[in-house]
Amino acid sequence: MSGTLYIVATPIGNLDDITFRAIDTLKSVDFILAEDTRHSKTLINHHEISTPMRAFHEHNEQHKSAEVIEALLSGQNMALISDAGTPLISDPGYVLVREAKKSGVLVSPIPGPSAMISAMSAAGIATDRFGFYGFLPNKHTARVKAIQTIAHVNQTVIFYESPKRILECAKDMLSVLGDRRIVCLAKELTKSFETIKTDTVPNLLAYLQEDITHQKGEFVILISAIDKDNKVEGEERLDKILPILLAEMGASKAAKLAAKITGIDKKYCYQRAIDL
Ligand code: SAM
Q: I need a labelling partner for 34 at 20 to 30 A (CA). Which of 55, 65, 161, 252 fits?
């Protein structure tokens, strides 16, 4: 009989945000696979868990997975944890889970906190449809392109951002989303300086700039879905120029030209052109 690989969610700040079942599981398995054993020591000590830990992170996931699966197949039970929240959500574990399942090992989730779900629950932005984008690219041009793409998505968009780039990211959002779109900055969730601000981008930018401490900490960003009252910068222009271009050329060429003129994503322009 092979053992079970438990995927255990741990707190995103407040050490008491962990389920009874998570603690029982962490106490009963043979090993805990931790992204950073030193970081997880605080949690383990806080809950008086004495199970040995092994390092399992993005740099050793590929080669460690085979070894871990062998141990699971020999009957050992393991728990995978990350530094915060739910493993595999912008955290290591995908390769291990994929390979464990291929090998016939039972993989069982022990649910609990995740920053994206916590942010969504308190943002006051529609949650009926959403897309999670992990971390956006670090570089300005690539990030602007990513925001241009998600700006037109007809669902709430969620992503993570580091304090190092939060200000630049807010400026990029302003340039693409304009000054009416509603966005939420959820910062330091479950910690002493938890702040959840849902407002227009100019107001959020002003908040970030008014005090350097407002840029510190961990952030989740939610962008409300596009709707007809919520047009992206340039979109009104797109609606004006597309019919003119379409009178002269096919949808594909018109979309390409419209994308160049407005800076709006080409695929979106094409969709708009064929919907007209
Ligand atoms: N696995 C985690 C989860 O389930 O949310 C996410 C891990 S990802 C490497 C870390 C990012 O999650 C941070 O950079 C930040 O964007 C977000 N995050 C984690 N904890 C947070 C918190 N307490 N408040 C706001 N954002 C948080």
A: 161
